[in-house]
Design brief:
By secondary structure, this protein is mainly alpha-helical. The chain is built from 18 helices and no strands. The protein has one domain: Amino acid/polyamine transporter I (Up-down Bundle). The protein starts with 9 loop residues before the first helix and ends in a 21-residue tail after the last helix.
Length: about 450
């Protein structure tokens, strides 16, 4: 476990969650958001933030009692025991981090190369993608405290750039352009937007994946979760008000991936493009750093508890778990070999399924963990509704992504069946409500 000097504090833990949530999406989603919700986009972030807080309630309550870098997967395993389904979810959850790292690496290269005096090609893109992932892998080798400090610095820079965007843009906002429209059609579009953009808040769970490396996790895990969601909600709402209020909707929709840069032009001109590009680089870098840190921690913790092969926890070069190297190697494979646009939707669906199981586990464990079951039930029903809305949205807009989502679920279950069959590992019987004190270890 190490001493307190080697651990991260409240601000560093909050930075890891904020860094993951305010990633590439905030610079590329506003065109899509304008297309879905129109001028109700700020309202979308209010609703999706409220839903995220309901889910975060269970993460905060359980995270203060169950201290494990496996985070939500440990919550699920404590609530439901070890079985084929939870084993498949363990593999699936780790893979969602691997794919997210790949997406961030591609996004970083996409923003960096146009700013460099280099010809954009497949080779130059690959060099940047590999370089940024290996760079943050090296940072992870330096330890949790170093990761937390760097993340805190990057998040400060990123929030500073976004604050400048908001402060300079608020005085030119057209009030009528951001006034909510509450007729039936716009209400439906707002709900569709909330279903899609709820995913922009899904990084708060990273706090629980660092709980073993935190000082006073019983107090700091809940605080970091709530503080990170509050910060991110304020940023999303204010940035969306400035973007929608400064650029007519048709132009915002037309700009698509660079909508935020276009929204900065009316009050910042060419410097707006540079400001947004630099902000995007810092945002993607912090998201990649936080996700790589969380993914490596999850791989190690799940291997330690027998949910992933032992190789993931074995120490290797520089005394780092091999799970870190496996996570990096697999993410680089996906980055260089695959088109990940459709897989991003799969990752979002996976996280929602994890949320549903975490909430159900909390409901079962309220006698041991505490918490109000009425809040848990409301949150579970809302997430189920959001998941169904996402599936409908994918079916209507990208049937391939819809099929890929369910194929991924089935494939993970198949991997778990084969893993247990090949290794002869028996299902473990976990006593419901046995709370983790420090590091949990279970018989394989």
């Amino acid at each position: 476990m190490g001493n307190n000097l080697d651990k991260i504090g409240l601000l560093q833990a909050t930075s890891i969650a904020v860094g993951s949530m305010i990633g590439a999406s905030i610079f590329s989603i506003f065109g899509l958001g304008a297309r879905i919700a129109g001028q109700n986009l700020p309202l979308v972030f209010v609703l999706s933030g409220a839903i995220a807080l309901l889910v975060a309630y269970s993460y905060a309550v359980m995270g203060s009692k169950i201290i494990s870098n496996a985070g939500p997967m440990e919550f699920i395993l404590q609530g439901f025991g070890d079985n084929l389904l939870t084993g498949a979810l363990s593999f699936l959850f780790w893979m969602s981090y691997v794919v997210s790292i790949s997406l961030f690496a591609k996004g970083f290269a996409g923003y960096l190369l146009p700013l460099l005096p280099l010809e954009t090609s497949a080779a130059s893109r690959a060099v940047v993608e590999v370089g940024v992932v290996l760079g943050f892998m090296a940072l992870n080798l330096a330890g949790s405290e170093r990761v937390g400090k760097v993340e805190f610095f990057i998040v400060l820079v990123k929030l500073g750039i976004l604050a400048l965007f908001v402060v300079l843009g608020l005085h030119t906002v057209h009030g009528d352009w951001v006034k909510p429209q509450l007729d039936a059609q716009h209400a439906r579009q707002t709900l569709d937007g909330a279903a899609v953009f709820f995913l922009a808040y899904m990084g708060f769970g990273l706090v629980t994946n660092a709980s073993e490396h935190m000082r006073d996790p019983q107090r700091n895990v809940p605080r970091a979760i709530y503080l990170s969601i509050f910060i991110v909600s304020v940023v999303y709402i204010l940035v969306s008000v400035v973007a929608v209020g400064n650029l007519p909707l048709p132009e915002l929709i037309k700009a698509e991936d660079f909508a935020l840069a276009e929204a900065a032009k009316p009050f910042l001109g060419h410097w707006g493009y540079m400001l947004v590009s630099i902000g995007a680089l810092f945002s993607i870098a912090s998201a990649l750093n936080a996700t790589l840190y969380g993914g490596a921690n999850i791989a190690y913790a799940l291997a330690r508890d027998g949910e992933l092969p032992p190789v993931f926890q074995r120490k290797s070069w520089f005394q780092a778990p091999e799970g870190l190297y496996i996570t990096v190697a697999l993410s680089l494979f996906f980055t260089l070999m695959l088109n990940l646009n459709g897989i991003a939707s799969v990752t979002s669906a996976v996280v929602m399924v994890i949320y549903l199981f975490v909430l159900a586990a909390h409901y079962r464990m309220t006698p041991q963990c505490g918490g109000r079951r009425s809040i848990i039930v409301i949150a579970w029903l809302l997430i189920l509704g959001v998941f169904i809305a996402l599936m409908i949205y994918l079916w209507q807009t990208s049937p391939l992504s819809f099929r890929a989502t369910w194929a991924t679920f089935a494939g993970s279950l198949l991997v778990e069946v084969v893993y247990r069959w090949r290794t002869g590992r028996e299902l473990l019987v976990r006593e419901l409500g046995t709370l983790a004190q420090g590091v949990r270890r279970f018989r394989r």
